Amino acid sequence: MRGVAHLDVVDLGVSAAGRPLLHGVDLRVAPGQRVALLGASGSGKSLTAMAVLGLLGPQFGVQGSLRVAGRDLPWRQAPGRRPGMAAVFQDSQAALNPVVRLDRQLLPAVARRRGVGSAAAARVIADLLREVGFEDPERILRAHPSQLSGGQRQRVCLALAMAASPDLLVADEPTTALDMISQRQVVEALRRCTGQDRSALLFITHDLAVAADLCDDVVVMERGRVVEAGPMEQVVRSPQAAFTAALVEAARAGLRPAAAPLGAAS
Fold first, then answer.
1. Under CATH, to which class is 1-84+168-266 assigned?
2. What Å distances lie between residue 177 and 13, 182, 183, CA to CA?
3. What is the pTM for the complete model shown?
């Protein structure tokens, strides 16, 4: 990975009730780079993402170091306080108020994040909605979240995350449970919003095919440990770890690998 890292996680360990869940996890994302954090359910990938975002509760013991844009940061930090970071999570329905029109949710948030008035915020969110693939942002803004599909809601969440102009976007299983068309639309939206001269991306997923389509590099986790890491093309072509080889074989066969119990959320 080239350049000064925007995100540098070294020797991350997480435990709960004295039980180790993550073991010596190293993770590095350079500016403008797309990195997939890949593993089966229970591998520890989402727990790693929660640690990076500062969202682990006091019931977790955490060790290791976290540097963001060259600054040492604590492992626990209030939501939204991570400098230069934004996140999109799997459950887009929970991220939006189902009974409030989207313009009434998005415009105040964009105005606050950009420090602009309501008219300027309306222009910003319309442009962002176009960037994530909506041809009619005005209609989307007049809609309630319940009137949109899961893929549409996910792209709305992505537009809202990008309103903060993050240096790093953390996308935790954003394509899970979507149909193939919606999945493709979300992946294309992520591609437009991230990459060289844009936000870096940490893409958490169990789906190697989706990760390989989107990301430059991959970090593979199994049972709370990193078992392989490197350029995506190299890892897919010549996997070194047995678990990675199983992921590659499953992706080629169109199957999902069996979960490896960890004792924590994936």
1. alpha beta
2. 29, 10, 9
3. 0.91
User: Where is average pLDDT lowest: 29-38, 110-119, 251-260?
Assistant: 251-260
3-state secondary structure of 14: strand
HSE on the CB side for 70, CA within 13 Å? 3
Question: How remote is the C-alpha of 163 from its chain's centroid?
Answer: 16
Q: How many residues does the chain have?
A: 266
pLDDT digits (tens, 9 = 90+) for 25-71: 999 999 999 999 999 989 999 999 999 999 999 999 999 999 988 88
Indicate the domain borders of the chain.
1-84+168-266, 94-165
44 within 8 A of 221, measured Cβ to Cβ: yes
Number of H helices, E strands in the chain: 10, 10
3-class secondary-structure state, position 242? helix
What burial class does residue 106 get, using C-beta atoms within 10 Å of its C-beta: 0-12 exposed, 13-18 middle, 19+ buried? buried
